[in-house]
Amino acid sequence: WPASMGLTALGSTGAAQNAATPSISYEAARASRYFKRTCIAAALGMTAHVGGQIHLFNLLQDQRASTALAAGAIAIMATASVLARFVYIRCIARLGNLGVLALLLVVQGQALIGLGAAQVTALQLLCIVAYGSTLGSFITQQSLVISEAFGAAIYGRLYGLTRLWAMPGGLIGPTLMGWLHASSGGYALPYAAIGGLSLLGAVVLWGAD
Q1: Rounded Cα distance, 30 and 132, in Å
Q2: Contacts of 151 (CB under 8 A, 6+ apart)
Q3: pLDDT digit string (tens) for 43-64?
Q4: Would you say 132 and 76 are in contact if contact means Cβ atoms under 8 Å apart?
Q5: Is the Cβ–Cβ distance between 91 and 141 less than 8 Å?
Q6: Helix or strand or coil: residue 45?
Q7: pLDDT of residue 188
C-alpha cells in the first residue's frame, strides 16, 4: 500500500509538506495576470463549449440531416470526447498544461466555425469529431493549469473562483446562439460567433505566462 511506503495522496511525505505551504498567497495569486487571463479564457471557452452542444442537434436538423444521423453524430461526439483525452495527455509533455488549454480552445473554435459553415455530411462529421475531442478535456485542463501554477494548498479556492467565472458562459452561450439564430435565420452566424469567442480565449491565454 502507498501508506506503507511513506506516500500520501500528494506523493511523498516531503511533497505533501511542500504542498501544504503555498509559494504564493491566495490574494497575490488571485490578482496575478496569469490567473485573470485563465479565468477570462475559461469564461469565453465555456460560452462556446456549452452553446455548441445545446444547439448541435438543431443545427443538424436545420441542415436537413435525418433524426437518426443527428443522433449518430451526437454518439460520435461523445466517443471522440473519451478517446481524445489520451491524445491531449500526451500533448502535455510537449506543450505544457497552458499550451494544451490554448490548443483545446483553438480546436474547439475552428470546429464550431466549421460546423456552422459545412454543408457536406463528411465535413460535418469531421467537425463534430474535432469538437467532441474538446468536450470534458477543456474543463479538466483548467484544473491542471491552476494547480501547476499555484500549487495544491490554494488550488481549491482558486479553481472554485475559476469556475465562478466560467459558469455564466454556460447560460450565455445557448441564449446568445438562440438569439443570433432567430435574427439571422440560420446557424452559420451563431456558430461562427461562438467559435470566434473560443479563439479569442486562446489569444487571451497567449500573454498569460
Answers
A1: 31
A2: 18, 19, 22, 23, 24
A3: 999 999 999 989 988 888 787 7
A4: yes
A5: no
A6: helix
A7: 93
